[in-house]
Design goal:
This protein has 284 residues and is an alpha+beta fold. The chain folds into 3 domains: 37 residues, no CATH class; 68 residues; 146 residues, Immunoglobulin-like, CATH 2.60.40. Helices cover 40% and strands 21% of the residues. The strands form 2 sheets. It has a 5-stranded mixed beta sheet. Strand 1 and strand 2 form a beta hairpin. The chain is elongated. The relative contact order is 0.13.
Amino acid sequence: MKMSMGNIARRVLGRRVLGLTVAGAALVTGGAAFAELGQPAPWQYNLQDAGSPVMENIIWFHSLLLTIITVITLFVLALLVIVMVKFNAKANPTPSKTTHHTLLEVAWTLIPVLILVAIAVPSFRLLFLELDVPKADVTIKATGKQWYWSYAYPDNGKFEFDSLMAADKQPRLLGVDNEMVVPVNKVIRVQTTGSDVIHSFAVPAFGVKIDAIPGRLNETWFKATKVGMYYGQCSELCGKDHAFMPIAVRVVNDQEFASWVETAKKKFASAPANSFASAADVAQ
């Protein structure tokens, strides 16, 4: 039984569409499979997994806004379709001359106000959570320089070290020679400043992003809830090597942190600022 050219074309097109769909799903699934805590993943389209309570609230608020935006968009789309179908010149040759409708005018004033209130309340709550720094367990001073970061631990021996991008480390453009090391489930206060130009200290998994400005001391905080490596980058255009000053935060348990501090006191206290010793070696 011979098939028409139209049927053959439809089958070929259907197979190609199916193939593209399967390939797209594989790419998305593959990207999710390679996702790791504290760093971006291939083909990632959503926010990084939360590594702190602040980031958990940011993700929740983002989901709320996305839901509200989606509902509004679908509602407006439905209105446009209704207007095009029901009130075009052919379907409605004699248009209404109504100029006022009290209930409608109250509705389109009151509903947007209620939507704004629904957005404002959790927004202010989140801003307060981000800006109200609780009593800190560890304080770290992060100084942005062209083009690397320096970290000081004033409450743990007053040692300081530089953290530069390491070309031979993974992940690419995020690995560093000396990581910032912090204990898990402890409030970490980060004080930021700049030594030359404006930088920005940003770690997405912690929900942290704050400018490092010369002559000014800003502060933020985070509380890492999971042990592991977390990566960020300078988020302010600061010069030709702006893309090459990553931030690496290694979260460890209390015992490992105490051991690292004792070794770091000896390693970095009398060492010059540009020390290239690996923080991973310090922890050993």
